Structure formats: C-alpha cells, structure tokens
Amino acid sequence: MTRRVPPGPFARERILVVDDEEDLLELVRYNLEKAGYRVLTAGDGRAALDLVAKEGCDLVLLDLMMPVMDGLEVCRALKADFRTARLPIIMVTARGEDADVVAGLALGADDYVTKPFSPKVLLARVRAVLRRLEIAALRAPVVLEVGALAIAPERREVLLGSRPIALTAAEFDLLHLLARRRAWVFTRSQIIDAIKGDDRAVTDRAVDVQIVGLRKKLGEAGALIETVRGIGYRLKD
Questions:
Q1: Is the pTM of the predicted complex or chain greater than 0.90?
Q2: What is the mean pLDDT of residues 23-37?
Q3: For the purposes of burial, counting CB atoms within 10 Å of the CB of 213, is it exposed (0-12), middle (13-18) or buried (19 or more)?
Q4: Is residue 2 classed exposed, middle or buried when 0-12, 13-18 and 19+ CB atoms within 10 A define those classes?
Q5: Which residues make Cβ contacts (< 8 Å) with residue 102, sequence separation at least 6?
C-alpha cells in the first residue's frame, strides 16, 4: 500500500513514512503535515524502495518489523545505492533492544525512535536530523555539474571529466553565470553587467569573443553553450 499526499502551498521537505500499521501511518502523517512537511507513505519495505525511486524524498521514517522486506533490508538497500546513500533515515521500532538499534545505526541510519512515542518527540528528531543535513550542505563546497563539466566556484576551477580546464577570469565568470541558471537565456547586456570588473571594459563584441574562446577551451562540452539568435546565450541543461 502506498499513497502520495498532495503538498500544501507552503509545504517544506518531503518525508516518507514506512510502516505496516495503518493507524500509526495516519497518526504520523497527520502530525508531519500539521508541522508543514509533505508526506509519502508506504506499508512495506519493497513499496518504500519503489516510492523513493519514483518520487524521491528528503528523509525516511522507517519501521523495522514489516512484511515483504524489513526495515534493516530497506536501510541496507538505500545506503548501497549511490543515488540514495546520503538519504537520512530515522528508524521507528517497537524493538528497543540494543542489537537492533546498533544494527540499524551501523547500516547508516541517522537516529531511532522507539514505539510507543510522543509525536512531539518524533517531530523534534525529524527537525534535528534535517537541520544537521542542512548544516552539512552549507559547509560542503558547492560544485555545479553540467554534462561532463564540474564547476567549483569557491576554487574557481573547472573540470572536464577529470581534466582541469584553464580559463581566464572573464571566461570563468561567464561560464559560472550560465551554469547557475541553466537553460536561462542571458542577453549580452546581462552578461556584461554580471562579469565586468571595475577596471574591465566589456562590449557586446567582447562577449561574443569570450564565448568563442570558451567553447574552444571546453572542447566537445563547448556545444553546451547555445546561441539564441537575436537574444544572447544559454547553457543547455
């Protein structure tokens, strides 16, 4: 059994609740939605994995004792897949034995809550895990990936696959501008305003020259920079 709950207009993170107890699912869903979260539900482990693959989510509340596939198997499968390896998991279990908790944490779960639990305590645990995830994301260096290109603004570095590409300051600023808003068409005037420095004169013709040079240095990846006739340039998604 799976169900997708439509998000409200100000909904925040999407949370998947996995449990074979319908009453508990409804209780947790109600409290999470009341707190502003979007909610997906699944009644067994296999359905949960299918839902993560199709819908995606930001956090999983995962029961251990379930039919078809138990929580530890689900946790193991999620952590073994590179696409979901960093997905935070809170185990929700009626089994409070140390061995069960240790097994789940060893597989990569982030926290656990033992049934019966207070909805307020569960919400506090959810907020704490999501907050840690947000802090970690802020600390992690941002890398923009477009096709085979990896653009690291903090290091002002561009890699094509594993090969570094040497760009001038203006070329890097231009590429970074396009990469920040992929598929967005920038006019030459917008590009000039974004990349010019106090001591750098930039004209429409100079933008075209920079584009030609940038495409040449990027090799095959240069085709990602698309000319939009009569308007300007964009980086294809």
A1: no
A2: 93
A3: middle
A4: middle
A5: none
